[in-house]
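Appendix B. Extra example for self-study. Work through it before the problem class; the solution is given directly after the inputs so you can check yourself.
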Amino acid sequence: MKKILITGGAGYIGSHTAVVLAEAGLIPVILDDLSNSSETVLGRLEEIIGSKPIFYKGDCNDRAIYEEITKEHEISGVIHFAAFKAVGESTQLPLKYYQNNIGSLLVLLDFMQEKGIKDIVFSSSCTVYGQPDVLPVTESTPRKDAESPYGNTKKVCEDVLVDFVTSKPGIRAISLRYFNPVGAHPSAKIGELPNGTPNNLIPYITQTAAGIREKITVFGDDYDTPDGSCIRDFIHVMDLADAHMKALEYLSQQEMDFYDVFNVGTGNGNTVLEVINTFEKVNDLKLNYEIGPRRAGDVIKIWADTQKINSVLGWQPSYSLEDSMRDSWNWQKGLK
Ligand code: UD1
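Solution. Structure tokens for the complete assembly:
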């Protein structure tokens, strides 16, 4: 059975992807520094997939950890999730973001080339489109200047992959541009575990419903959208995880020195207020929310054109927004 290295595999998207890979008969090898995740995830993964995942605690900038892993396991591909992702913090500590997010990709690619590991799937983000002029965004929609150092690291990493593949290193790479990942594994054993006060919408909603936060503020209701709140494309994390499996399969069929990029979204935009209403409806509860001022740097509206991933990777989302809101809440309720 093929072993796939998952950097950041104890994190939100990484842990769900480990499940999908294991269920497809691959062996996930998780590397994570646990800086924004917990070791308890490994036990939860064991409950879901029936065996303890192979785990290394380590820094993805540290070449020695890759040496150690490949001494013990034959790795046939890598999914590189590990990165810092707090937009606000990245404006305060830009070097931390450039060092970690770009540095780790450089170390990893160099190592892969040396060891002959061919395939890499990279976690990019729809943040590379900035404030788009035309919707929905396709993969050929021009990228814009990043709004934050965090966003810029995603752009630069995409560029690194393009330049590296152009140099013919004998590698095949895909960048997946994630829209807004939401939901949790339907078992509620794994989900999103933000450190401290959440920045993102869904953990803020679920923590408010759980009474951990007093109320949630909707950042602006005077935008040019049907109800005035921002629009995003919310994609269930299990569908997103499945896209990684499809990307790996597709890479394995390509010639060497291949690179491509895919949007991973549902193709539907929903407003923040629609999300709140859906959450209330499917979970039969009332959320304490208020309308507040706009958040600086927010994208007003964005959703994906998904034709490319649908036709080329044969990937379709199978979870609805209702499913996502139900699974997010079930996950939150199970947290102590
Ligand atoms: C944000 C980042 C994006 C990054 C992603 C990673 C910005 C502008 N974008 O995406 O670059 O890839 O996180 O996690 O920071 N909202 C509220 N109240 C809240 C929280 C959020 O109304 O308490 C609204 C926001 O204004 C936004 C929507 O919910 O309209 C989604 O916000 P969020 O979950 O933070 O994601 P993004 O802004 O899309």
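Self-check: Residues 130 and 144 are 5 Å apart (CA to CA). If your reasoning did not lead you there, revisit section 3.
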